[in-house]
Amino acid sequence: MERHYGMDWLRIGAFGLLILYHIGMVFVPWGFQVKTAHPLAWVEIPMFLTNPWRLTLLFVVSGYASRALLAKAGSAGAFLRSRSTRLLIPLLFGVAVIVPPQAWIELTTQHGYARGYLDFLAHDYFRFRFLDGIALPTYNHLWFVAYLWVYSVGLAIGVAIVGGARLQALFDPVFGGWRALVIPAAYIVLLETVLFHQVEDTHDFVGDGVAHLRYVPAFLFGFAMARSPIVMAAFARHWRTSGAVALACFATIAALLLAWPDFTFPDSPAVLWTYRVARHLETWTAIAALIGIAERLLNHDHRWRSTLAEATFPFYIVHQTIIVLVEGALLPLHVGPLVEFAILVVTTVACCWIFYVAGVRIGWLRPLIGLKGSALRSNPSQGSSGAARMLSVR
User: I need a surface site. Which of 104, 212, 300, 394 has the fewest CB within 10 A?
Assistant: First the structure.
């Protein structure tokens, strides 16, 4: 496959927005591992710029990347072995090392847990039980990695049995042209507003059926889209229309939240249906607009692209733990929300970058954070563009 730089930038941007979204989770009244002392209901409004589509987009771009990885691997078996190494090792490392501080902060700040962190690790975290309603050990934000691995297993089996060409032959006639925008949007609205009214995913793989009905098709759509020029052309042609619909949906949600903050909606079918349709129609129209922008405007390289593309997964692995630890340290200081937010953004990005650089330079750490084996070291005189090329895992 020819490399699509626009989809690289879309993947980088999607994970970057996810980090910003998780910082926002500190300030909204919704549940999270750590909360500011004074949650702000109005923060819900900007959060809905990405809330409806952020996770579905991640599975679309992951499916797209899986097509390139399958082509590079050469067979379904080699693809599955590569995916297992790159996903399961970081997942296990994350559950054992990265995630425990999140659970400890949540217990100490929200449940009155009194033990120190080392005692928590030694006596409670690995007992495989619930502690005050929290399952331990846990994967928290790394649920995405677990789901992605399972979907990759299913994809490898499907390709081995049916064949990628046959699957592609079914995809192009169905989703060619305007149907690439309308059919997925109609499916999501039907699924989420008519068939089911699940507010949030459970992140319990066995009990998360509605999420699978959303994410598996998104993953497979991205996989097939990677070899479908007519679908990519449709997104590029209609990105302005898709974006306008998505913004109209967001404006509708914002108006509802201004009228009834923190979802204190009246017992009115009209209000509830308006909210549900706007939220779930925004999902695919926003994704369609972003793919169209990636195809039409962003499909060009830059000297930082390969480095940022490589850093995305290590950033994802560690970012939420950094957010939770930093906010846990800020709580006793009683700083204002603006200062709190600024500190969280700066320290999260800085610590994620340090984590990534350490992973690049320490050979044994690389597979633990989802990077390929040892990288060639660049000559310092080559500058940042040379380093980016030498450190790229692609």
Answer: 300
33 in Cβ contact with 139 (< 8 Å):
no
pLDDT-derived band of residue 172, with 50, 70 and 90 as boundaries? Answer: confident
d(C-alpha 120, C-alpha 103), whole Å: 9
Give the separation between CA 360 and CA 103, rounded to whole angstroms. 27
Unique residue bearing structure tokens 């900007």: 46
pTM: 0.91
pLDDT digits (tens, 9 = 90+) for 90-122: 999 999 999 999 999 999 999 999 999 999 999
3-state helix, strand, coil in the chain (%, to 5): 75, 0, 25
Strands (E) across the chain are located at 129-131, 134-136
Q: Is the Cβ–Cβ distance between 347 and 326 less than 8 Å? A: yes
The phi and psi torsions of 178 (rounded to 5 degrees) equal -65, -20
- Extract the tokens encoding 120: 């928590």
Give, in order, the Cα–Cα distances in Å from 47 to each of 36, 41, 43, 83: 16, 11, 6, 32
Give the DSSP letter string of 67-81: HHHHHHH-SHHHHHH
H or E stretch at 130: strand 129-131
In sequence order, the β-bridge partners of residue 131 are 134
Tell me the torsion sign for CA atoms 235, 241, 244, 245. Answer: negative
Residue 382 has a pLDDT of 38
Residue 378: burial class (beta carbons within 10 Å; 0-12, 13-18, 19+) = middle
- At residue 164, what is the residue type? G
Report the greatest alpha carbon distance in the chain.
66
Beta strands in 151-204 (DSSP E): none
Q: How far apart are CA 184 and CA 341, in angstroms?
A: 36
